[in-house]
Design goal:
heterodimer, A: 404 residues, alpha/beta, six-stranded parallel beta sheet, B: 2 domains, three-stranded antiparallel beta sheet, 7 helices, 13 strands
Amino acid sequence: MGAAGLLMSSVPWLKGCTPAGQAEMSGGKVRFGIIGPGSRGSFHIDNLLKIPQAEIVALCDNYKANLDKASAKVPSARRYDDYRKLLEDKEVDAVIIATPLNLHYRMATDAFSAGKHVFCEKAMAYTMEECLDMYRKGKASGRIFFVGQQRLFDPKYIKIMDSIRAGEFGPVVNVRNYWFRNNDWRRPVPSPDLERHVNWRLYREYSRGLMTELACHQLQNGTWAIGMLPKQVMGTGNIIYWKDGREVFDSVCTIYTFPNGVNMTFESVISNKHYGMGEQILCKDATIDLVMGRLYAENPKRRSGIRQLVGEIEQGIFSSSAFAGTSWSPENASADPGIAIMPEAVEGDGSQEMMQAFCHSVLTGVQPPHVLEEAYYGSILCLLGDEALLQKKILEFPEEFRLS
Amino acid sequence: MEFVYSAKNPDAPVAFASFGAMHSVFEIVVPGVSEQEARNVAGKAEAMVAAVEKKLNRHDPDSVFSKLDSSSGLATVEVDDEVFSILQFCEAFRKSTAGYFDIAALSISEIRPAYIMSPEKRTVSLAGQDLILDAGGFGKGYALDVVRSMLEREGVDNALMNFGDSSVTALGHHPYGDCWKVETRSGGGSFRLKGSSLSVSGLRPDGIAHIVNPVDGTLVGNRGAVAVEGCSAFVCEVLSTALYAAPEAMRQAIMAAFGGYSYKVIKQDLKQWIGENL
């Protein structure tokens, strides 16, 4: 449970992580079917196996290697190679969809039709139209519907976003997101005919590349912090290094602009990893580094080092001197150490809390507010960004995709 | 060395000296002495810290620590009385901190004690292969104690020393107070040092973990800084390192063996920080 329980008052979707939420789930069990127990699906299996209220009863994959690996983790689960058969399984209450992006829409809407609760990996769907239809069908079904945006469940993010939204650091003036890696983003392929099946992230038929796989998580930070949707996006995307037959960009740079003029950037390159992953909210009075979990004041209280005792003694002043240290250079990056957002180390990235919250919602029948809407807009923004890259145009946020 | 002497305040002339050592900076403020006296003790301090570093720096091929670390447990190394005494203390501290202070924490090998000492021959050898001895957890504190003794011998009554922003030692008091008041950048209020030292362990200033838990070999994450106050800077640094790595439940038990020393866990609250800085 960790720190999540402390945040319940402001974040209702974490109720499943609190003692009260645990009590509400007492004795209940959610029977899961996992559709796509590959890399991400396997990660969810590991998390579910730690949750007493979760039971994995069915597994489905048309790639036998992944199905076998998942079966080894949950030998008792029934095996399917067609998701429609799994949806017919009456003992499955909820499904986790962790398949290639182009399959999310069909599988999720079929699952709603079959009366299943749905947890779908991000991005929500391949097109904005599919996202909207999926959102509406999910709501109409009355079933619980989560999309895998785990930052919404990360205690560090929740704690600091509350303060940002309350204006404690002054207005948000910029949001910077980046994700740098240095690898070809490929997975080993046992035979050439499985290339597109295994490396689906590299091909346009299945994926929108860096925008749907990486940006989707980070673009949420801006709307969450600022409390509004961007009005436009522009950017550029290219294949600059990994010219190996892939169809999605290996280098992208996008700028989203909010109605108040504030910019949010997302940049990603997968041929240099020096700067790694970064998510930073720049406010007038402070900077929040979400990934490092630290907070920096623009003008931190200056604490005198012991060198300054000389000047103080000259003036006959007796004051408290801090351990010396940071030097301030106006045009250089600040060397201020800042402070940790959470006083204690918080393990994980919210994924475990997210699964626990999903179980709580299924067992109590209560869809938590905002979670689906935040995820929906995260997906819409990354898809709109990819459209801007493909069209090489500045695109306005399409009003027809604004939820009423 | 940087040296500043000011007699602008005739009631309280003051000297400041600073020099690099142990990959860090040593600073000293000495009020109420002549410039010549100040230069004398500052020069001696620099020489003494350099001598300590020469013995303890495992990256210096001439140091005892380097010779031991490169011996793969095969060599027996002669040491002088000072290093022998330091190593004896370190082993005693390891035992009395339930293993949470351990100069062999960076080792792959779990053999403990990590080294074998021969009092008759004044020699030391490692207890096996894949053992590394590192003075990072106490070197600055030990050097502060050495300089403090020198200052006392030289008749300096009042001084404040800071080594690496992690350990401070105070002699006497501030010219306009009954103590030296210091605080840490991580908050936690002021400490009134009267002939005592203070050592703080925690994350690096940039938020990166750097202290290894000797018991399980992992880096210790954010637990709030631990400040230890007491007479010896050496012991303060040992204890702050050990307490930072140790579970909360163990801390009182460790401190019970160290009369005259106290500790404080500094966990700066977000709202408190906002109040102080914004």
